[in-house]
Amino acid sequence: MNLANPIGIMVDSLRLNLRDGLAKAKELGADGVQIYAVEGEMDPENLSPRDRKELKSYIESLGLRISALCGDLAGHGFQDAKVNSAKIEKSKRILDLAVDLGTQIVTTHIGIVPNQVNDPVYDTMQRACEELGVYAKSLDAYFAIETGPEKSAHLKQFLNSLSTNGVSVNFDPANMVMVTGDDPVQGVHNLKDYIVHTHVKDGIRLREVDPREVYGALGYEPMSHDRIAEDAASGASYRELALGEGHVDFDNYFKALQDIGYTGYLTIEREVGDQPEADIAKAIDFIRRYR
C-alpha cells in the first residue's frame, strides 16, 4: 500500500493554546490541522476580517493548511426544532469562517438519525440538514457529519434524501467500532460518494451500548464532549486506544479509502491519555508506515 493522503492533526488534541498547538503540529510533521471553531478565540463572532487574514497567514507561514474546522455544537444536534434556527445560523457562520481561512469543510455531529423516516425528529433533522447543505453548496463547501451515532447504511439513506451533497461525511472508523459495532471497511464503500474528511483513531467496544446514551437524543442526556472523552478513557462500554491497539482494521480501512479514490486528509484525533504529543507523534509514524 502506498498512501499519499496528507496527514492532519486535531490541534485541540494537543491541549495547547492555539498558536503553540499550530507550531507543535508543524514540528510533529503534519501537513494540515483541524481546529475547533465554536467558542473562545475561534468563535466566528470573535474573529474580525483582519483577524482571519492574520490567522490564515500565520498558518500558511508554518507550511500548514487547515484540513477542516470542527463546528460541533453538541447538545441534541439538530433534533430539537426549538433551537435549530440558532444552531443553523451559528453553523453557517462557522462555515463562512472556514472559507475565509482556506478550507471548505466543517465537521459536525447532527444527532442520531431516527430509524423511522416518519419519525417527526427525522423530519426536523432533514429540514435542518437540507438548509445547511444548500448553504454549503452555495459556497462550494461541505458540512461533514461524523460517523458513529448510526450505522453507515442508514446514514447513507438519510444523506440520499437531501437535495445536494453539501452535507457529507467526516469518516471516523473508531466511533463506528466503539459504539455501533459497524464495519468501517464496509462503511467506506457505503458512504463513498460523501466522504470529504476523515479522522484517524482507534478503539474497542467492550459491550453493546445504546448510541443514544453516548451521542444524546431527545429524552436522553445531551451529548457532551467531556463525557464522551471520559467514557473513552475509562468507560465500561468502549475505550479509545492508540492506533493499532484497537479493533479498527487499518490495513483494509486504508485500502478501502484508496479503492474509492479518497485523496483528502487523514486527521489524527486523540481524545484521551495524558501524553497527547507522544501519542500523536506515534500516530503519525503509524500512518507513515503505509506510505
TrEMBL record:
Keywords: Isomerase
Gene3D superfamilies: Divalent-metal-dependent TIM barrel enzymes
Molecular function as annotated in GO: isomerase activity
PANTHER family associated with the record: HYDROXYPYRUVATE ISOMERASE
Signal peptide residue numbers: none
UniProt cross-references to Pfam families, sorted A to Z: AP_endonuc_2
Keyword Isomerase annotated: yes
Domain Xylose isomerase-like TIM barrel residues, every copy: 22-289
Protein name: Xylose isomerase
